[in-house]
Every structure is written in C-alpha cells, then in structure tokens.
From TrEMBL:
Membership in a protein family: Belongs to the purine/pyrimidine phosphoribosyltransferase family.
Protein name as it appears in the record: Hypoxanthine phosphoribosyltransferase
Organism: Limulus polyphemus
Taxonomic lineage of the native organism: Eukaryota, Metazoa, Ecdysozoa, Arthropoda, Chelicerata
Main location: cytoplasm
Functional pathway: Purine metabolism; IMP biosynthesis via salvage pathway; IMP from hypoxanthine: step 1/1
Keyword entries, A-Z: Cytoplasm, Glycosyltransferase, Magnesium, Metal-binding, Nucleotide-binding, Purine salvage, Transferase
Domain Phosphoribosyltransferase: 44-198
Protein's cellular compartments: Cytoplasm
Gene: LOC106478876
Catalytic activity: IMP + diphosphate = hypoxanthine + 5-phospho-alpha-D-ribose 1-diphosphate
EC number: 2.4.2.8
SUPFAM superfamilies cross-referenced by the UniProt entry: PRTase-like
Cofactors: Mg(2+)
Length: 200
C-alpha cells in the first residue's frame, strides 16, 4: 500500500507497512526497537517544503510569530522556517520578518494526565497580541492539549492563529482538532526519529 496524497495531507493507511530497515542507515540505539521506516527522510523534507509554500502563500507579506512546542517540535520548526525563508527569497526582493519563541506544554505528571495544561518557557504570552501566530508542533495525538493551547492563545487576542503539525495520529480518542497544515496523517502507532525520541 502506498501513501495517499490529498490536498491537505499525505495519509498513511492503517495497513501501511513502511519500508524494510535493511534499505536505510538506522542509528544503533534504534536497531533492536524498530519494525520499519515509516517515512523516509527525503519524503519528510519534500512534504515540509510543500507546507512551507502553503504557509507563505497564506501569510503573504505579513510578519508572523512562530511558536514552537518543545521538545520534539524544534527540528520541524527549523526545517519549516528555512523553507519558508526560501519561498520568500525566491518570490520577492524583501524578506518577511518573523520572530521565534519556544514553549513547553505540561499536561502530565509522571505518566498520568492531570487534565490541566500549563504553558512553560515564556513570561506570559501578551507579546502575541495583534500578531499572526504560527504554532509549530511535531505530532498531535488526541489534539486535546493543542485545543487547550489554542484557547489560551485566543485570550491574547492575536491577529490570527494557525497550527502546523508534521504528524497527526488517527486515533479513536481524537478531539477532532485538525491543524491548518498537516504533513502526514498516520495510523495510531508509536513513532521515533526526526527529533521524536523515547527513553530520553
């Protein structure tokens, strides 16, 4: 089964098997833990370039604030912003100003959800007032934490808020939240790589 391209995302079916490990260089610390390579690096980079074009087209010449959700979102943010800058560089003489801030969301204590989401890493979010905000997240599982973050951000009265997530899991416990920019919709499987790690 091959990935299905839709206008908004690349969707991997539940029976998608990925690629055999023997075709790739896999870090030693993953060798005994992986079943397959779900999405090769080159495909991820191509998809991020497409998302960057979409973001640049939607924002036009408007400045924006990129808000990265740590820890896993940093690699996606760096690659996405580099490709957004390339879009502007090749389409006009002037660059579009943007700022970058990092936050952490805490909704778990030990391995249990507290049901309460805390935003860590910035001294308040009032600097987002009247700004176009691009929230960058690595993966959205149920979407419940992101929904709470969006409610928190709306209280700051931004000009606009868009969410970009490299991966969105198809899960029965989904809140129904759909990011504005989705790289890949994947089956409800545990994934690692591309700054998504475990046991760290």
């Amino acid at each position: 089964m091959v990935p299905v391209q839709t206008s908004a995302k690349v969707e991997l079916s539940d029976d998608y098997k990925g690629y055999e490990l023997e075709y790739f260089c896999v870090p030693r610390h993953y060798e005994d833990s992986l079943e397959c390579v779900l999405i090769p690096s080159g495909l991820i980079q191509d998809r991020i370039e497409r998302l960057a074009r979409d973001v640049a087209a939607d924002l036009g010449r408007e400045p924006f604030a990129a808000l990265c959700v740590l820890k896993g979102g940093y690699k996606f943010l760096a690659d996405l912003l580099e490709k957004i800058k390339q879009c502007y560089r090749f389409s006009s003489e002037n660059s579009v100003p943007f700022s970058v801030d990092f936050i952490r969301l805490q909704s778990y204590k030990d391995d249990h959800s507290t049901g309460d989401v805390k935003v860590l890493g910035v001294d308040g979010l009032s600097f987002l007032q009247n700004k176009n905000v691009l929230v960058v997240e690595d993966i959205i599982d149920t979407g419940k934490t992101m929904k709470v973050l969006l409610e928190i951000l709306e209280k700051q009265k931004p000009k606009s808020v868009k969410v970009a997530s490299l991966f969105v899991k198809r899960t029965s416990s989904s809140s129904g939240l759909r990011p504005d920019y989705v790289g890949f919709e994947i089956p409800d499987r545990f994934i690692v790589g591309y700054a998504l790690d475990y046991n760290v």
